[in-house]
Amino acid sequence: MTTLGFLQNMGGGSILLIIVVILLLFGAKRIPELARGLGRGIREFKDATKEIQDDLEEGLKDKKKKV
């Protein structure tokens, strides 16, 4: 997994420190709300990319039928 390659250089203490800082900044009640919002955003992005891909594939099929 290349997107999370930077985590290989981090130890357990560093990750724990980051989690504590996030908890202090946002609070325990806000983190689930942020995660839900992030999940919705990712879902909408995937749906939009799927829709664009379907439109492109449909356009290519139509173009092949005309030729």
Automatic annotation (TrEMBL):
Membrane-spanning intervals of the chain: 6-26
Location(s), subcellular: Cell membrane
MF terms (GO), sorted A to Z: protein transmembrane transporter activity
Predominant localisation class: membrane
Gene designation per UniProt: tatA
Top-rank taxon, per record: Bacteria
Keywords carried by this UniProt record: Cell membrane, Membrane, Protein transport, Translocation, Transmembrane, Transmembrane helix, Transport
GO cellular component, one term: TAT protein transport complex
Family (UniProt): Belongs to the TatA/E family.
GO biological process: protein transport by the Tat complex
Subunit comment: Forms a complex with TatC.
InterPro entries per the UniProt record, alphabetical: TatA/B/E, TatA/E
Name of the molecule in the record: Sec-independent protein translocase protein TatA
Function text: Part of the twin-arginine translocation (Tat) system that transports large folded proteins containing a characteristic twin-arginine motif in their signal peptide across membranes. TatA could form the protein-conducting channel of the Tat system.
